[in-house]
Design brief:
The structure holds 2 protein chains of 2 kinds.
Chain A: H1 3-7, E1 8-19, E2 22-33, E3 37-41, H2 48-56, E4 63-68, E5 74-77, H3 91-96, H4 106-112, H5 128-140, E6 146-150, H6 158-175, E7 178-183, H7 186-189, E8 195-200, E9 202-207, H8 209-214, H9 216-236
Parallel strand pairs in A: 3-7, 3-8, 5-6, 6-7
Antiparallel strand pairs in A: 1-2, 1-4, 8-9
Helix pairs in contact in A: 4-5
Chain B: H1 3-28, H2 32-51, H3 56-76, H4 82-103, H5 111-116, H6 124-143, H7 145-153, H8 155-160, H9 165-187, H10 192-203, H11 210-235, H12 239-255
Helix pairs in contact in B: 1-6, 1-9, 1-10, 1-11, 2-3, 2-4, 2-9, 2-10, 3-4, 3-9, 6-9, 10-11, 10-12, 11-12
Chain lengths: 243, 264
Amino acid sequence: MNDVHQKELLRISEVCLHFNGRTILDGVDLTLQAGEIVTIIGPNGAGKTTLLRVALGLLSPTRGTVKKREGLRIGYMPQRLQIDSTFPLSVRRFLSLAASSKGENVAEILSETGAQALIDSPLSGLSGGELQRVLLARALLRRPDLLVLDEPAQGLDVHGQMELFQLMSEIRRKRGCAILLVSHDLHLVMASTDRVICLNRHICCTGTPAVVSRDPAYLKLFGPLAAQNLAVYTHDTQHRHPR
Amino acid sequence: MEDFLIRAFVGGLGVAAVAGPFGTFVVWRRLAYFGDTLAHSALLGVALGFLFQLNLTVAVFVVCQAVALFLFLLQRQKGLGGDTILGILAHSTLSLGLVTVVFLQGVRIDLMAYLFGDILAVTRGDLVWIFAGGAVALIALVVIWQPLLSLTVHEDLARVEGIPADRIKWLFTALLALVVAILMKIVGLILVTALLIIPAAAARRLARSPEAMALWASVLGGIAVGAGLALSLYYDTPAGPSIVIAATAIFLLTLALPRSAEGG
């Protein structure tokens, strides 16, 4: 079999999606290679989460195709978990619900995402950051070839966000899985992403983070403020407080 | 003890055992209003059953199924307010049932028995329905337990992990229609939802796992049935409402339990 073909995990071609007479996605192309980290950025309402749901097969596009490599295993980390407070579910039990989690040890996976201490905690009592780590562990339990993360940094403070993206890079290094994530903020993901896709219903521009951050289409979409923020952030990378 | 009392108690326990696990899912999935709608539409089933001379439990089950299917299809067409649709269906089917009953000639229907139940009039045939139907519902629920739990925690996540979400949801709804048809015999269609959700809510503080909560809901429901029957016997109160009052009293008692009992 063709080697180049095997490396391609996912190919989305000319995907359009209309909903209630509105165009959410318009002619979007996206390919994902094994082991690469791709970030979709865009303003609110740009269709980022919709594109992710199309990639996951949760939504069928109005037009266009989504092709996945045969037997592709996807680990999905949703944006949030709205669990009824009357639902008595421990972290351990939540993780054991992951279908096909055989062979993977729940405790080991939790320590990989830095949440081993939470194993017997009730799911409904976790903080935002703790929940992210537990959700990430659940996605990893499936030994994914591709991790799909929907706004993983939402609700985290700056320190938590940096830790999360470091964890993400580490997971890719150790497991070699590709990662597709959504973010509304380029500067957050600069250091840990290979390729950026700037989306506003259609793809405005795409490339390495450095290229996209100087692209006129990106600057137009996010305004000159984005560039400023970026400069501030780049200057600030080494600044960390001990806990 | 009198025969009819034994039948009432046994039937009540059977219903409580079935209501427990289903009720916990109704609470977790926030389907209380949905259960109400199914129960309200049951009267239309009763009326149609009389009209076409069908077994009433079968007729109720069929009408509840039809309403459930209709709701299921409506909900897939997003953009319509869920509780508005439920409200329209609940009250229109109840009214349709009440109006149809009037047109039935030559049959005298004890409406109160269907609205509020008549546990003291439970027959052997009813017991067969309660235990056979209840066993089918519970066994099927055990089979879909894990995927249904997974769906209840996060539907998209479950779908990505390969769980056939629509099929499981549909099956659960169909089973719930069966459970409503069974529960109606004991507490009547107005109070069906109460027997589903009150014991389940009371079980929350006693349980640290989903399974424990389902079992506790059955146990507490059984206690409520016993206490309600006793109340009905000594004070000559209507049995169905007495059971619901007993369940509510149990729920209030569990509120006094320390929150630390709430585990994971």
